[in-house]
Each structure stands twice: as structure tokens, then as C-alpha cells.
Amino acid sequence: MSLARSRATSLMSWGLWSLRVGIESVGLIWLVVVLLTVAVSMAASSFNAAAALSAGEALRAGTALWGLGFGGMVTSSYADQGTLSLPLLGLTLAQVGWTWNCVRRARPSRPAAGAAIVVAAIVVAVLACLTGPKGLETWPAVGGIAVITGGVVGIRLQRAGNGWPALTGWWDARPHWVGPALSLAYGAARALALLSVLVVAAAVFTGAGRVSVLHDSLAGGGIIAMSGLVLLQTGWVPTLLVWACSWLIGAGFSVGTGTVFAPDRVVAGPVPTLPLLGLLPTAPLSTVGLWLPLVVTAGAMVAAWRRRAVLNALRVRYAVSAAGLAALVVAGGVGLLCVAASGSVGPGRMTDVGPQVLYTVILVFVEVGVGLAAMAVLAHPYTRAWARGTLPESVLPAAYRRRDAAADEDVDEQDGRAERR
To answer: What mean pLDDT, rounded, does the chain reach?
Structure first.
């Protein structure tokens, strides 16, 4: 009886803790977004009573904005204004970071505890969606929350050694060059992210005036309204970084059907009065734009050079395989980000907004792969020894060996057999 009671107490303890983690990880982010929306609505009502929202309308609007970070949409009551579905990736990243912190503090010790956390997060997300607008536009956020929470819980369980044995066994049986490949992918991703930040910084330097004009035309006055507009745009800053990455790669992106923003080509059109869109390039870089993607290859080479000790410990063919896998991982990750940074910002032609996904994935794989593979080969000790002509005869193909060296090896082999006898 004592043992059964102890098990029941333990089960109830981690069950309640899992419920608390689910409520904290989802409910707090939702509450912050809703409170900010209500505050901005109340501040705006003092300047324009006709545009004021009631408490219920502000609650529904805040929930709709919250859902925009996880796959939801914001639909206007006016048909000519269309649908807003461009994800707030800043809110998505905030949710990932906060969920990671909550799960880290919970320290789930078994898959069942992790599953309870995911279920609790889903329940809270469902309750949040019930406060949103009528219709199904906000409900995809439930799936987004489930994916984020499940991914974070799974990673934490595996890292703590409490995950699924089959997955652990598969990971332990991986080829020895997969670890260096993931290290290369991490370095290349960091280099690509840094280059994208530099592109955005250059865009801010050249387009700050346009952004300021658009911001002043929308803010209307009041510190709270201005802060709300700034926070809303902050949620789209990671989206802008993904667009900058696609631009740097050479594939470019579009803001409306028929538009193209790439280093060597700019075909612009009317865009919504969102201040961040004031950073869009107004002209191509002419000839320089054709060579700009080589910067990505150079960045990948630098990333591989910084990890040359890991690559040099592998044979050349394994080092090249690691470079190819790393390029594939980076290209796949960029492709997922491009999908996440796409959506609609209005009706008609404004339903096509975001990077050219397939083109971007192909170019990332080629540009990053060439840089990583080139450095993996050029910096390898085998290549340097071959260039100096100092390779041992034993590692050369038989057709390239000197006859006397081959004869010496035959004598050595015969001596070895004689000694074993």
C-alpha cells in the first residue's frame, strides 16, 4: 500500500508540474500579447474614438495576433482588405525560448512526463483560440504550439538521456563523419546569419528615412501607440532577416505577385504602408549583384577553416562527405525558414509575399557546399603533402608508385610472412 501510494504521489507530482509548465509556456506569451493589444487599443481610442475597440474586440484582436506567430491568420471584416498571414517569427522565437526555459526547469525524467507537457500546452492553446475571432483562422496556432513544445521536449529528453532508446541507438550507430558534418553546418549557418544581419544593417542605413516617414504616418501620436507599432514590427524582424538571406544568396524575394527583389534585378510595385517595407531595395546592384553570392561561398570557406582540425582528422573522402551533408542541412534549414517567412499581407497580388523557396534552397546548397568542400580538400594534410610531392608511396595508387618502391613493399610483405611462420 505504501509503495502504491508513493507511486500515485509521484505520478500526481509530475503530472501537476507538467500542467504548470504547459500553462506557463503558452499562457504567459498569449497574455502578454493580449495585454499589449488592449493597451494600444485604449491609447488609440483617445486620439480616434471612431477607431476604438471594445474590450472584447481588443481581446479577439490580440488572440489573432498571437496566432499569427504560429500559423494563424488575421482576417479583416472588409473583403477588400484581404488576409494577413505573414508569420510573426519574432513571436515564434520568443515562444521557443520561453518554452525551452520552462522545460529546462521542469526536467522531465521520462517520455510520459514530456507527453503530459505537450498535452497541457495544446489544451492551453485551444483555450486561447476560443477567445479569438470566429472562424478557423486562429486554430492552426494549436498545431504550431504542439510542434514547438514537442520539439523542445524531445530535444531536452534526448540530451538528458531520458529519451527514446531506438533513437539513441540510431544516433550511436551514425557514421563517424556525421558529427563533423553537423559542426560544419553550425559554423556555416552562423556565417550565413551574420552576413544576413550585415545586409539588413546596410538596408537600415540606406532606407531609414523611408521607414521613419511610414512610421510617423501610422503611429498617429501617443507613446503607447508608437511602442505598439514598434513591437509589431519587431515581430517581423526575423522574417526580414530571412528575406535578406534569400536576397544575398541571389534568389531574391517578392512582395506582391510579379515583383522581384534580388541583387541583380529589382521589379517593384505598390506595397502596404508597413514601415519595415521602407527597407526594400529600390535599385539593383548592376554587375556587383552577379558576384555578390560569392560572399556566401567565402563565408562557408571561413567556417570550414575554423573547423579544419575536425576535418583534418578525417580521410579526404569523409571530409568531403561531411561538407556535402553540412550543405544539405543548411539548405534544408534555410528552406524551412523561407517557408515560415512567406504569407500574404493583403488581397489580390499581395497574397504572394516571401522568398523564392526552391531557388533559394538550390543556391544555398551549391554556394555553401562549394565553399565547405573546397576548404575541406584544400586544407587537408593529404592535399598539402600531395602538392609538395611528399606523399608516402604506400598511400599512392599502384599505377603511380615507383617500381623500386613497389619491389621494396613486396620484400617487406614476404619478410612479414616469414616472421609469422
So the answer is: 80
What sign results for the dihedral spanned by CA atoms 250, 251, 256, 259?
positive
The residues, ordered by sequence, that sit 6+ positions from 379 with a Cβ below 8 Å of its Cβ are 304, 305, 308, 311, 312
Closest CA to 198 of 240, 233, 244, 243: 244
pLDDT tens per residue, range 43-71: 666 544 444 556 677 888 889 889 999 98
Contact in structure between 227 and 246 (CB atoms under 8 Å):
no
Q: Identify which of 390, 381, 340, 355 has the alpha carbon closest to the alpha carbon of residue 144.
A: 340
First to last CA, the chain: 71
**Residue 241 DSSP symbol:** H
Full DSSP string of 176-222: TTHHHHHHHHHHHHHHHHHHHHHHHHHHHHHHHHHHHHHHHHHH-S-
Least confident of 23-37, 112-126, 207-221: 207-221
Beta bridge partners of 253: 261, 355
Q: Which residues contact 186 (CB under 8 A, 6 or more apart)?
A: none
- Is the distance from CB of 254 to CB of 261 less than 8 angstroms? yes
Q: Who's near 211: CB < 8 A, 6+ residues apart? A: 204, 275, 276, 278, 279
Q: Angle, nearest 10°, between helix axes 140-159 and 111-130? A: 160
345 membership: H or E segment, kind and range: strand 345-346
